[in-house]
Each structure stands twice: as structure tokens, then as C-alpha cells.
Amino acid sequence: xxxxxxxxxxxxxxxxxxxxxxxGWTRCPDVTGLPSGKQVKGGGGIAAVEDVVYLIPGDNTLDxxxxxxxxxxxxxxxxxEGAKKKRVKKGAWLVSxxxxxxxxxxxxxxxFYQYDPSTNTWATLVGPGFTKxxxxxxxxxxxxxxxxxxYAGSGSNTSEWKRFNLSTLAWEAxxxxxxxxxxxxxxxxxxxxxxxxxxxxxGNGSNVNSFYAADLNQVTPAWAPKTPLPMTVPGGKGxxxxxxxxxxxxxGGTFYAVKGGSTTQFWSYLPATxxxxxxxxxxxxxxTKGIKCGKSLATGKTGVFAIIxxxxxxxxxxxxxxxxxxxxxxxxxxxxxxxxxxHMRLTPNPARAGAGVACALxxxxxxxFEVRNTLGQVxxxxxxxxxxxxxxxxxxGVYTLSVEAPxxxxxxxxxxLK
Length: 418
What we know:
Blueprint: E1 3-6, E2 9-13, E3 24-27, E4 43-49, E5 52-58, E6 65-67, E7 72-74, E8 93-97, E9 100-104, E10 112-116, E11 121-125, E12 138-144, E13 147-153, E14 161-165, E15 170-173, E16 189-192, E17 197-201, E18 209-215, E19 224-229, E20 247-251, E21 254-258, E22 265-270, E23 275-281, E24 297-299, E25 304-307, E26 315-319, E27 345-352, E28 354-358, E29 367-372, E30 378-384, E31 388-392, E32 397-405, E33 408-416
Antiparallel strand pairs: 1-2, 2-31, 3-26, 4-5, 5-6, 6-7, 8-9, 9-10, 10-11, 12-13, 13-14, 14-15, 16-17, 17-18, 18-19, 20-21, 21-22, 22-23, 24-25, 25-26, 27-28, 28-31, 29-30, 29-32, 32-33
């Protein structure tokens, strides 16, 4: 990987964690070596710090695992047993923030822990105090006015949610005062964009995969309905709800979601257009079972990690930037299958903070990439042999992106939103 940094702009030449030649889904090493000898099941989940993945397998264990890009290894000590000697069960959840991992133990408890990889230590934190405890938990990290919060719900068939202030290490009331549904259940999940808007996807809904958003920057935030996650894939017949294992993550301004419930459907969503796109199946058909666990997705630096759970060791990595063989995710094609890329394609566009660039070059050859601002100044350059790039840390504005190689020249505009 080659990094060129000009005027604060980071341009990363694409590399895939699991395989340098990977495109789309890549099979990563199976989750093995758990101290309990069990597999990932109910309550199992993952979180990523950069490209290091942390895992709880759930299934009434205290196991805690780490994947460093090469292999899985157990972390000792594992999740704290706590005063009540409870283990991680169905409904557990975990998130990462500021290079630390936060774990909700689930199983109807309010137990909440912080793991610090730099010191390999656990801290027992004050629990959220949900009325029924965490039984189908979900959480996301939101940054507001320079302060980071973990917004979390219990998933215990209630509308409760709260936020944890990462500066004061205290729980606070969240606004809106409740979730947009009366009963949030297992499979429900939260995600945020880079601007402080939080999105809620309902699990186990009655007849629709309801989706809502609230701008937390407002004095009085309110939930607004968004386009529901489609029940069927394009051309398909069977309707599938979001169930256990449902999860949604943000990568570079594009959301990626799975439905869980022993399915492998994989979707993308663009907030700017309120549009869902069916990307394909997790593992491109290589997964032997459908997803059924807790937090099944985690965002790495340039892609999305996925565990299958469902009593299997399956572990995968999705790279949207390099998905030339399967097509990049288009900006606004609700319910459509993403087309095969033939020229320069930006994902997403408009973007917030980051975007992927993919070009189908006539042949394997060195390509030169440039980013220019509205004054015509070159703010970033890089070279590649396959025309694949990822741009990060963009300030709002309009940029001209160009790729040039022998017999090939393309230009495209990129709009970066606040």
C-alpha cells in the first residue's frame, strides 16, 4: 500500500486485509481456537479497531477473541464474569470507540464493560439501567459537538434507549425520548452518518423492515420515516424480515446491512438519496449457513467484516471499492442489482469524508491518479497497477478526479458534503 498525503488529504492505494487480490467478498480465516470450544451463536458479535477485529462468541461463554489480519487468538482475561457471575448470552452487543471496545453482556442484564487493547485490561462501567435489561441489544457511536456518545437500546420489546457519554463515563437520557417504535426487538440496529444523524432499523417488524432517522444536532430531534429495507431481493419472491443477526454499518458514507434470520442478503443504503441497493449475498454464495448471531458486521478501514454465527466459524471481508467483478454500488438504484463497472466509478458520490474510486483499465498497467480542488491545485496523487483507490479525510467541496494510463484517460467530479 502506498500513501500520499498532500495538504491534509489522505489518499490510500487500495489493499485488502485478507488478500491483496481480493474483490468483493473474501473468505477470511475461520473463527477457531475459542477457549470454551464452542462456536459463534446467539449473542456473538464483532467490533473493529482499525483492521483488528474483536469478537464475543456469545453462547453462554466469557470468551473474547482477536483477529489481527492473520489469525484468531484468544484474549486473556476474557469478558469479566461480574458480581452476579453472568456470561455473555443472546442479545449481547459490542462497539468500538477511541481505540477501545465496549461490551453489553446481554442475557437480560445491564452489565457493561470497556476493554482497552493497549493495556489488555477490562473496566466495569455503570450499566444503562434499562427496565428489562439488554435482551436484543443494539448500539452505535455518535459524535456531537466534539463529544462522543454510545447510543444504545435494550431490544427487550420496549422503546427504551439511552446514551453513554464517553467523556464522563455516565449514562444520560437520549433525545428523542424514545425509539420510533413501541417495541424494539432482537435484530433491531442503529447506525450514524458523519453529521450526527442516527438511523434505526427495526428488527422483527410486523410486515415491513421499517427504517427511521433523527438529526441529533437539532434542539428537539424527532424521528422521521425513511425508505424501508426491501423485503425481497430484485426478482425474488420470498419476503424476509430483519431478525436475529440483523446489523447495519457505515463505511465512507454508505451504509451496509444484513437481515440476519439465517439469510445472507447484503444491502447498501445511501442517505443522500434515501435509496437501498441489493448488493448480493454475503460470501457470494460461499457461506454454508445464513447469518444468525448478534452484531454480525464491523467496519474496518476500507471494508466491512462479517461473521455468520449460526454455530459456524464463518468470517468474511467485503471490499466495495475493489468490487470490479460484481459492480460498484451505484448512488441511487433502489431495489436494483448493482451493474458491472466499465469506467471510473465513485462510491459514494456525493460523499462525506471518504469515497472509493475504481477504474476498469484496458490491461494491467501503471495508472496515475490525481485529485484537484476548484482552484485547479493538485491536492493528492498516487499510482496503481489496477486503478483502485480509496480517498479519506476530504474537506467539504467539489473535486476533479482523474486517472491516466497508456490508452486510458478518465475524469469525474466528486462532491463532498459537510
